[in-house]
Amino acid sequence: MAEQSMQFPQSLLQQSVKEVVESMLSSVDYDALKVQATTEKLIEEILKKMVGLKIPYKVMASAVIAQKLGAGVHNACSAFWDNTQDGLVMFKYENATLFCVVNVFFAAV
User: Fold this and answer.
1) How far apart are CA 46 and CA 25, in angstroms?
2) Integer CA distances (angstroms), 21 to 24, 39, 79, 89, 90, in order
3) Residues 6+ apart with CB under 8 A from 107
4) Distance CA 32, CA 53 (A)
5) Domain 10-108: homologous superfamily in CATH
6) pTM summary value
7) 54: left (phi > 0), else alpha (psi -120 to 50), else beta?
8) Which end of the chain lies in a sparser environment, N or C, as judged by fewer CB atoms within 10 Å?
9) What is the rounded CA–CA span in Å between residue 64 and residue 42?
10) How do residues 63-102 score in pLDDT, each as one tens digit?
């Protein structure tokens, strides 16, 4: 029996990450004293959402939240994997006081 290849569900995962980030950060103002806890909680909620989807992937997430001061920020990610089964979701969010960049890596099991 031939092994079937599973296509990476990019749009489902992109939408799921977007929903979590927007729901958590839409009413948050940048606070230097709370940003570490906010970032940790954001990653925790993203991972919970991914586990809840019951997808056959190992999931790794990172997030950066910074005060919006007009400085440029560049983000790059790279991986050596199977491009048909594994994937990456990158999502950028900003409001009046902060910006956030989230990277979620998915490796097929």
Assistant:
1) 12
2) 5, 10, 23, 12, 11
3) 57, 58, 60, 81, 86
4) 32
5) Tctex-1 (3.30.1140.40)
6) 0.88
7) left
8) N
9) 10
10) 999 999 987 888 888 888 888 889 999 999 999 999 999 9
